[in-house]
Amino acid sequence: MTDDPRWAAVDEYVDGLLVPSDSTFDAGGLPAIQVSAAQGQFLFLLARAMDARRILEIGTLGGYSTICFARSGAQVITLEVSPEHAAVAKANILRAGYAERVEVRVGPALETLPKLQGPFDLIFIDADKETYPQYLTASLALSRSGTVIIADNVVRDGEVANSDSDDPRVQAVRRYIEQLAADPRVQSTVIQTVGNKGYDGFAISFVR
Ligand code: SAH
Ligand code: DHB
Ligand code: MG
Predict the structure, then answer these.
(1) pTM beyond 0.70, yes or no
(2) Going by CA atoms, what residue is nearest to atom 17 of ligand 1?
(3) Residue nearest to atom 1 of ligand 2 (CA)
(4) Which element (helix H / strand E) includes 68?
(5) pLDDT above 80 (res 1)
């Protein structure tokens, strides 16, 4: 899949007009795989629109999406396996002024998730893709009627529609979507996205 140059040009145009620039954010040398600025603003707007009080994030990296959620006014718990990533995130969260609103829990999410007390209003799944099906099960256990669960990177250049893909991340994301389809507790969709991060998408679910 070759990215169309218009995708990044539109992000640049939109970011300049609509997305607050986070000049204090420091990627700290970590891989630049955080949500795009426009997507981060979407997450902020969703949390705002829902008036989310408690947000759970699985996969912190440097805290970029974490800070978008904290900006909405919610309390955020974010789970990160890498102590190095967590340290970068904590510094960014402190600089952004949200240290009291955000808790970074370090460890494999499958170990930290069972220790959490639900319910959360909004859950953002964005860690290792191979584990998305288990993260969905754990997220549903931490949900109430009305919780929104979002999973990042479920389109993967369109590979999600390729049942023969030999990429374990694609196969896990497919299981995630099939789990949504089979679970009467959720109403869901997938929204494809293009932009400066290429062609990907979010799965969005509402817990009845
Ligand atoms: N949500 C971030 C990006 C997260 S990138 C943003 O948009 O700003 C994915 C993160 O998940 C990485 O930091 C990676 O270290 C972390 N991760 C990978 N496997 C994990 C696991 N088993 N438990 C918790 N975090 C994990
Ligand atoms: C990549 C992008 C992501 O949003 C993510 O969560 C993990 C990896 C990537 O582009 O490799
Ligand atoms: Mg992601």
Answers:
(1) yes
(2) 127
(3) 33
(4) helix 64-71
(5) no
3-state secondary structure of 31: coil
Q: What's the pLDDT score for residue 122?
A: 99
Q: For ligand 1, what atom is nearest to the CA of residue 40?
A: 7
Q: Which amino acid is at 205?
A: S
The per-residue pLDDT for range 150-196, each reduced to its tens digit, is: 999 999 999 999 999 999 999 999 999 999 999 999 999 999 999 99
Domains, the chain = 5-15+35-207 (3.40.50.150)
Q: How high is the mean pLDDT of the chain?
A: 98
Give ligand 1 pocket residues (Cβ under 6 A): 33-35, 59-61, 64-65, 79-82, 85, 108-109, 126-128
Q: In what order do the strands lie in the sheet with 198-207?
A: 102-106, 75-80, 54-58, 122-125, 148-151, 198-207, 186-195
Asked whether residue 22 carries a pLDDT value surpassing 90, the answer given is no
Alpha-carbon span 86 to 126, nearest angstrom: 15
The DSSP string of 130-183 is: GGHHHHHHHHHHT--TT-EEEES--SGGGGGG-TT---HHHHHHHHHHHHHHH-
- Return d(Cα 27, Cα 32) in angstroms, integer: 7
Nearest of 129, 117, 131, 137 to residue 155 by alpha carbon: 129
